[in-house]
Write the structure tokens for this entry.
Amino acid sequence: MSEALTPQRSFELSIEAGRVFTPAAPIDDRELFAGRTNQVRKVLDAVNQKGQHAIIFGDRGVGKTSLANVLASFIPAGGYMVTRRINCDKGDSYNSVWLKVFEEIQHSEVTKVSGFAGQGHPPRVDASVDIISPDVVRRQLEFWSKDSLLILIIDEFDRVDESYRAIFADTIKTLSDNAVPATVILVGVADSVDQLIAEHESIQRALVQIKMPRMSKDEIKEIVNKMTNLGMTIEPEAVDRIAVLAQGLPHYAHLLSLHATRAALDGMSLHVNLAILDVAIRNAIEAAQQSIRSAWHQAIVSARKDNLFGDVLLSCALARSDDMGTFAAQDVRAPMQVVTGKPYEIPAFAQHLNEFSETKRGNILKKQGENRRFRYRFTNPLMPPFVIMKGFSDKKVTTEVLKQLADSLTLF
Ligand SMILES: Nc1ncnc2c1ncn2[C@@H]1O[C@H](COP(=O)(O)OP(=O)(O)OP(=O)(O)O)[C@@H](O)[C@H]1O
Ligand SMILES: [Mg+2]
């Protein structure tokens, strides 16, 4: 295979790889979208059911926006469909969110194509004087959904101030009670729905809750195997290793796959093996988000050479955690032994855990619970895979250890 690979072709493929693997951008092409069958089905059920709306929530970076982006492609063509997505910003209010939505619908290409322009005018909203109420929203959406299936995606909903949670809930209720043929899909970072919207009983039927979990190993592998789109192959063990390192986060599946394909192509090969993956891991660490790299550095920096901060942080990333991603000091002991080769009791690293939860070390961990029953979690879910990749690249974590730990990383 590799005989056919000219320098020109290798260069072209490495550019093409940046289209297939997009660590920094949500997916917007169904062809590149992996897994998530259950979640897609649930949202589509809400779209097809009059009076139902949906809320997609989960950790940062698990693939919420990507799911929202590809939804329309799962809906069979027929009639007019208008799918628009808006992003909320910090400081957005109920009014400003809906103004963005109305503006977006009015200017959407699809709307124009489907001939809305000739069919009267939408109820007038004057941004400078009108206070938008759930009824104003209802009238607008009734107008715009007259001849088409209207799907509105309100992304980054966690940025809207919490004081608007109740009125958004009332709006969903109003739209549902009036059977407005539009579907509102709220999307945001949250552990539970009540962090995003007031959850009174009467909206529970109207609002389908879709929790986006981390990806399963198979879903992560599906992303990695998109390498075949480039005419490239990858050793099954290398795929497994990416799946272990990514910890269910598609961002890392993209980051590692992108660097693996490029490292192979640089060596004029169309095949990724474990040696190439090692190079890719080193490159991926350097290409990781600046914010992650500097947060890691701030957490472990110390004037003393023989300090334990790096080892304790790595052990935290390897520690067995519960469904919420939290672990106790006790859970750090076993990985400490693996990482340092020595037995450490909790008092030897309790102070480190404390400091990780303070501003001085950038609050890399969040400490929860009460005295003597503290639990910890990484503030940024994208941090643990980075810490493990770094440990692997610095040879603090061997392949053997990774294999052993693959079963105890509870995130899959
Ligand atoms: N189903 C999928 N198939 C392939 N890649 C995916 C999938 N879902 C997400 N990704 C990739 O994972 C990364 C994160 O995805 P996305 O931006 O959709 O997550 P998010 O949950 O919206 O993140 P945030 O909380 O930061 O808004 C992106 O690189 C995206 O391309
Ligand atoms: Mg998003």
Summary: The beta strands are 53-58, 80-87, 148-155, 182-189, 207-212, 233-234, 271-272, 365-368, 375-378.
